[in-house]
Amino acid sequence: MKVISQIKLPVEKEMELFEKKFFESMSSKVALLNRITHYIVNRKGKQMRPMFVFLVAKMVSDGSVNERTYRGASVIELIHTATLVHDDVVDDSNRRRGFFSINALWKNKIAVLVGDYLLSKGLLLSIDNNDFDLLKIISVAVKEMSEGELLQIEKARRLDITETVYYDIIRQKTATLIAACCSLGAASVKPESNEIARMRRFGELIGMAFQIKDDLFDYGTEKIGKPTGIDIKEQKMTLPLIYTLNNVSKKEKDWLINSVKNHNKDRGRVREVINFVRDNGGLDYAVKRMKEFQKEALLILEDYPKSEYRDSLELMVNYVIERKK
Fold first, then answer.
1. Segment 176-188 mean pLDDT
2. What does the angle CA 53 – CA 167 – CA 231 come to, to the nearest 5 degrees?
3. What is residue 133's predicted lDDT score, i.e. its pLDDT?
């Protein structure tokens, strides 16, 4: 059995019902909108976010979920989908998960409007049901994701990211959404409890590990994946590169910065940078930090009684750093 199917097993029924509710939450009187949202629903990914919501809800409440849990999962998926649709417009990307993106099929104006529609549907789903606590969790995530992206753009121009700033960026850009899923799951079944903050921290740690794993893919080894160097081409400051910049001589640092800034389209030079980072301990350091985040996340789970939901979340934490893509 594939790992994802194994993780999903204890919430399989909930996920099936969620898909129906999620599709209903997108419905509109405008035929064009319905055609596009139908296209979106039929091209779903692994659905990790709703899985986090249901698994956490069931773990902290001895196996129960309620309508708020379904709404929380739908809202996070609506708002996340909206950000992806907008991202594809911003990045001028024609593909999403191997399929044509919305902007590729229906052009930018329609894609932006669809993103706005999904965002407002998510907000209304919470407001109409007085789920203001859930809405706050999601709104904080959207604010932080925007700030994280902008902070990364600002810093990439100067290539002066410290390790601390890097963690700020990935916490906001990537980890905050997973943190929101986990705290939503807890808040849906145990409003105003300590579980919400604890599960938020759990999700944040997974998100940090997830992003560092993504950074490592860029440096491709047999263990990690295919070499691409795409982050270097896009002048993204990743953890292996930051560590190397801070731990080599001034001459080597100048060469690295010059390579990333001015020679990032030169495939040979990018390959040299990848090898240099690897030879100077950049990958080993990033793996070490990733495993520290993983360990801290697993420690949080140990506070809960053993259950199939906890087992699935443990599997999820390990999958995040062992995945091959």
1. 95
2. 95
3. 93
Q: Which helix (H) or strand (E) holds 233?
A: helix 230-233
Q: How far apart are CA 35 and CA 39, in angstroms?
A: 6
Q: What is the pLDDT of residues 161-174, one digit of tens each?
A: 888 999 999 999 88
Where does the chain show beta strands of DSSP type E?
A: 95-96, 99-100
Average pLDDT, the chain: 86
Whole-angstrom Cα distance, residue 107 to residue 168? 34
Distance between CA atoms of residues 183 and 194, nearest Å: 10
**pTM tops 0.85, yes or no:** yes
153 vs 186: CA distance, rounded Å: 33
Per-residue pLDDT, 224:
42
* C-alpha separations of 264 from 12, 232, 252, 282 in Å: 45, 6, 16, 18
* DSSP letter for each residue of 236-305: ---HHHHHHHTTS-HHHHHHHHHHHHHSTT-HHHHHHHHHHHHHTTHHHHHHHHHHHHHHHHHHHHTTS-
